[in-house]
Design goal:
six-stranded mixed β-sheet, four-stranded antiparallel β-sheet, Rossmann fold, about 270 residues, binds magnesium ion, alpha/beta, binds adenosine-5'-diphosphate, about 30% helix
Length: about 270
């Protein structure tokens, strides 16, 4: 198995004017490099006719490479709006958003689609797998969109499924897998492009508690392996799996606190 994690971090310099900043480990924190995410004074205003809703009101934060961060807030607090911006699915009304050094706040639809495919692995509450395709066919899809050739796609899809412990289920379709296994296929799909960021939106929301624990354990392993993970949730217990929690309410970040190092050393 290859270990492309380091390469992905190294490639961050390419889109940036400045070299990545290397901060030596302090003994408490993991090694930090250039931020994967730099959000500066993000505002998002939805306009429906004369009605305006400020879903994000001046949100600023950074997420460093190899961090595991939970974004937690109640319903209507702006989590999905923020996730859409972090995931390059939408742009802010104002403010700047840089992903791996590239300014995504002013990109066109086409540029956003490219960055999404190249830099982000998505994990959704509803798994979003294609029912007619086997596990490995689902996992290879992002590589298909990226124009990777067939042999390489299969090799990487199988490799990714092995990483999530599903090497014995590669030919199963989603309907032949448990919810927890389906979410692991989705995580394999998120990993297959070797993204800078894994963005998980309520990934345990549709799972029983044992499968949820399984998925959180897997995210934990990926974090320990050097991945950058952003976990969006309304659930404090789920957020507790991350290394750091940012609370969002009424479109503003309330506090950015360290909640211990639960995400490492297990
Ligand atoms: N497309 C939209 N048009 C108008 N208002 C919206 C739209 N999407 C979200 N909102 C409003 O923005 C606020 C934040 O929503 P959202 O980001 O979905 O929060 P969360 O994901 O935390 O539940 C809410 O008040 C919601 O009603
Ligand atoms: Mg939401």
């Amino acid at each position: 198995m290859t270990t492309p994690i380091r390469q992905s971090n190294g490639s961050m310099a390419s889109g940036s004017d400045t070299s990545p900043v290397w901060i030596e480990p302090t003994g408490t924190f993991p090694v930090n490099r250039a931020p994967v995410i730099e959000a500066r004074d993000l505002w998002k205003t939805y306009r429906n006719g004369t009605l305006e809703v400020d879903a994000l009101r001046g949100v600023s934060f950074e997420i460093q490479s190899a961090e595991y961060v939970a974004i937690m807030g109640p319903s209507g607090s702006g989590k999905s709006t923020l996730m859409h911006i972090l995931g390059c699915l939408d742009v802010p009304t104002s403010g700047s958003f840089r992903l791996a050094g590239e300014d995504a706040s002013t990109m066109t639809e086409e540029e956003l689609a490219h960055v999404r495919n190249k830099r982000i692995g998505f994990v959704f509450q509803q798994f979003n797998l294609l029912a007619s395709l086997s596990a490995w066919r689902n996992v290879e899809l992002p590589l298909l969109y990226a124009g990777v050739d067939r042999t390489e796609r299969k090799r990487r899809a199988l490799d990714s499924l092995e990483r999530v412990g599903l090497e014995s289920r590669v030919d199963h379709r989603p309907g032949e897998l448990s919810g927890g296994q389906q979410q692991r296929v989705a995580i394999a799909r998120a990993l297959v492009t070797n993204p800078d960021l894994i963005l998980a939106d309520e990934p345990t929301g549709n799972l029983d508690s044992a499968s949820a624990a399984d998925v959180l354990h897997l995210l934990d392993e990926l974090h320990v392996g050097g991945r950058t993970i952003v976990l969006i949730t309304h659930d404090a217990e789920v957020a507790g799996a991350a290394q750091r929690t940012m609370r969002i309410r009424d479109g503003q970040i309330l506090e950015a606190e360290m909640v211990g190092m639960a995400g490492t050393g297990r």
